[in-house]
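In response to the reviewer comment on reproducibility (Comment 2.3), we provide here a single inverse folding case reported in full, input and output, so that an independent group could reproduce the run without further information from us. The structure tokens appear first.
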């Protein structure tokens, strides 16, 4: 989808695109999918990386608390798989530090 946000790319958004988008949005934000954190313990972070982007999931007691992802920056596209995986861990720790470290 991100290619459609680039300059000069035309994309027509109609009912055919809107209906699945609203369904996905509703499913990702509904109670069985996302939960509020309870306390400050038992957090688990799952991280992954590809040559397109970084992603991670914050969980607590087997419930999803938050998702995060981002595209790779230009200079990161040449990184090794090992470095990308480490980058996804750093990415997750930066955004969820307040949950994981109690800061």
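Designed residues, in position order:
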């Amino acid at each position: 989808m991100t290619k459609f946000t680039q300059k000069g790319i035309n994309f027509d958004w109609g009912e055919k695109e809107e209906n699945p988008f609203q369904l996905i949005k509703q499913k990702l934000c509904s109670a069985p999918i996302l939960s509020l954190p309870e306390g400050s313990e038992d957090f688990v972070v799952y991280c992954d990386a590809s040559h397109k982007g970084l992603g991670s999931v914050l969980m607590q007691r087997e419930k999803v608390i938050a998702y995060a992802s981002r595209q790779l920056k230009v200079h990161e596209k040449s990184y090794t798989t090992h470095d990308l995986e480490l980058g996804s861990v750093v990415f997750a720790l930066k955004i969820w530090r307040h949950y994981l470290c109690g800061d």
